């Protein structure tokens, strides 16, 4: 249905009209186009295989190699900005930055291939139909599948994880973020007809649903498995405040991940998990009014203690994490289409509120500031003392994706 004029009571009594919201989306897309072009200019004087990630204390861009987990987000942002503005320069650059990542199709050293390839090549294939991109994605899915173990019924995230409590190392850690990588496997299953990709994705999703999501639908960040019998050895955190806390971006990955898994499977257990996790997030007493969460829902709360080695012990400021908000906004636009009328409306309104918060002056950077990233105030990892209150390339990516999903819902 295409309402000509409708009102959304999203933030308090704010009323938004469809026409006004289209202007809101296009002005944000226009701003993104400008920032991305400034960023492209900055990249010209750097190593051609350096991928934008964040900024340093002087406000200058920090980059990573393609083998970190985030190289797909810059090309992905270029694709979304191109999709919204139809600017041919953005398209050329999106192609160029995507194609740099071709070597990743054979990469097997960690689980993040879904992020790395589906945000870049996935969008490239969706928008161009270029069959070469499809083949690269399928090879990437084969590489990701090598990390699946039928005993743990999970894809191994990292090759090792060291607890914050001491020196203990675990060799089969699975993090909630890993749900996001399954989209690449579902894609490969559909494209090739090879059901093993789908089997791996569904097995991993079921295992995460049982072991990573708590009965109240909050989430553990890291679950470590025994490869001899598939039993859980430990439930801990890497980037959250405490083992029993809920790391905001982890919860965001869960909401997004289980929504996508429901789209691909139509299995009502996954929808229940997605809505349970979304309700936990949105109804939480610790979620600020603008719906941009603190970096962890339980920072400095009674009953939550960081491990002795964690830098979270030293950080007293309760930083927000804009990246978590952007991921949740994008997820909620999709989930609103699956959750029935009443909940669907509630999720959509929450997504719109988040987008308006992020596009306001508290979070959206002025042009040519913030290392030319779009959004300010994200958190990479406080326990590791890394990327605290900075822009992050993936916050921008999910903001642009959420804008695109909002736009598509109004067209
Ligand atoms: N996947 C890593 C993170 O969310 O920081």
TrEMBL record:
List of residues binding substrate: 112, 177, 237, 249, 253, 381
Active site (UniProt): 112 (nucleophile), 177 (proton donor)
SUPFAM superfamilies, alphabetized: Six-hairpin glycosidases
Pfam families: Glyco_hydro_88
Keyword Hydrolase: yes
InterPro entries: 6-hairpin_glycosidase_sf, 6hp_glycosidase-like_sf, Glyco_hydro_88, UG_Glycosaminoglycan_Hydrolase
One annotated GO molecular function: chondroitin hydrolase activity
GO biological process terms, semicolon-separated: polysaccharide catabolic process
Keywords assigned by UniProt, alphabetized: Hydrolase
Protein family according to the UniProt entry: Belongs to the glycosyl hydrolase 88 family.
Protein name (database record): Glycosyl Hydrolase Family 88
Origin species: Chitinophaga ginsengisegetis
